[in-house]
Amino acid sequence: MVQSLAVPMTVDDTHATSQLALDVRSVTKDFGPPLLRRLARRTSTPYRAVNDVSFAVPAGEIFGVIGANGSGKSTLIRILSTLLLPDGGDVHVFGHNVVTQALEVRRLINRVSADPSFFRPMSAVENLLFFGRAYGLTGEETRRESLSLLDQLGLDERRAREPMLKMSRGQQQKVAVARAFLTRPRLLLLDEPTTGLDPRSKRDVQRFVSDIRRDHGVTILLTTHDMEEAELLCDRIAFLAEGRIVAEGTPLQLRERVADGRAVDDVDMEDVFMTFTGRRLDEDEEGNPDDNG
Q1: Each residue of 124-133: pLDDT tens digit?
Q2: What are phi and psi of 150, to 5 degrees?
Q3: What is the pLDDT of residue 134?
Q4: Fewer CB within 10 Å: N-end or C-end of the chain?
Q5: What pTM did the predictor assign?
Q6: Contacts (Cβ under 8 Å, ≥6 apart) of 104
Q7: CA nearest 20: which of 212, 179, 221?
Q8: C-alpha dist (Å) from residue 127 to 16, 34, 120
Q9: Among 135, 148, 129, which residue's Cα sits nearest to residue 107?
Q10: What Å distances lie between residue 190 and 39, 111, 176, CA to CA?
């Protein structure tokens, strides 16, 4: 069994409160049918990317959402971050509705995507300075905080002052994580933040995620293809298949539900995912082209 970095939630945990950081109720999202499906079947039936999804995340928790490509993860993240409007249901972030109170929600959240954008001729520090000023932070404050965050992620000052275009994929993703936390969000949405990273960069990002939850009480929603990462970091995990949540619980609870007489330590989380979804995690699902997660 993977040794977890997550700190279990308890009623005495100073980071945990009775307030829900994230309350998702019966959320749905439809898209027009993919082009190839329209051409092949001549159908105008919408594609339901997110289908009646409900879950709640207490403040201070790391909640994982795992699904194969096309399962609806990225669409769900975009709804939670106010970038897409749901077609049904409600989402509240610390009590604020993501549709009717979008500005209030945006002050509380930030997001890391699997493919972040930067001004690549500029250095990491210059990118973070630009971002900080856009959020009303002073230049000196942003510079100091940027270097501190990048150092925590294993990126030294010399590298932080080089153009982004000279950085590796892993180094650029570290900058993206630092940028997301620069504004000290109360809810951090991490959409496959370690996909494609080398092992060292992946460990650096995972350690940073665990540390900011422990030290700052940040609530984190993590989507990932990496079952080991989810088990390492998350207090609870939800499996998403064809836009629906098909199972939810702690890693131990999910293992116990499918053990079927075996020792829990002998149950592989990939087998758990296969049991609940009928698919391997690396299988692509047919889905909307706007949602590759």
Answers
A1: 999 999 999 8
A2: -65, -35
A3: 87
A4: N
A5: 0.87
A6: 96
A7: 221
A8: 33, 36, 8
A9: 135
A10: 35, 6, 10
